[in-house]
Write a structure and sequence with these properties.
This protein is mainly α and 151 residues long. It has 5 helices and 3 strands. It is 40% helix and 9% strand. It is globular, with a radius of gyration of 19 Å.
Length: 151
């Protein structure tokens, strides 16, 4: 952040896999995900230089909906530019309706995220078991998204 502030570079945090993390028993000290929005950036970086990307495609397996967002709290020029271009890229109304309905159902959304994280952990365990069984080397230091078992 200090580097970005020093050189007036926009920091873009791609949080597309933010909710796709799990407990990896092979990495007890794994770093958990923290959104850049959770950091107090006071005195470190101009908030107008900090932007976050997120979408439905990865965490919700909904790439067909083509729904994403940019969170930029203090950058009116960037938001104006995005708004001007968004006129040509509106999502279909059905995608908008499905997404808003899903995200407004907090109990379902929380249950889905928990279930997804459990299934990611189970499938990671299965994949690494098979890799070990076949003496195929892999990197066990992962706890997010599909980055498990890179050979």
């Amino acid at each position: 952040m200090k580097f970005c502030q020093r050189y007036k570079i926009h920091l873009i945090s791609d949080e597309i896999y933010a909710l796709s993390v799990w407990q990896n028993p092979e990495v007890l000290d794994a770093v958990t995900f923290e959104s850049i929005l959770s950091f107090d950036t006071t005195g470190i970086i101009d908030p107008g230089l900090v932007h976050i990307l997120w979408g439905m495609s990865k965490d919700f397996g909904a790439n067909g909906l083509r729904i994403g967002c940019i969170i930029s709290q203090n950058s009116p020029p960037l938001l104006d530019a995005v708004k001007a271009n968004s006129l040509f890229t509106y999502p279909p109304s059905i995608s908008d309706h499905i997404t808003s309905t899903l995200l407004e159902d907090t109990p379902y959304t929380e249950s889905y995220i928990r279930t997804n994280q459990l299934r990611l952990a189970e499938n990671y365990a299965l994949a690494t078991f098979l890799l070990k069984q076949r003496n195929i080397p892999y990197s066990p230091k992962v706890n997010a998204a599909f980055f498990s078992g890179w050979i």
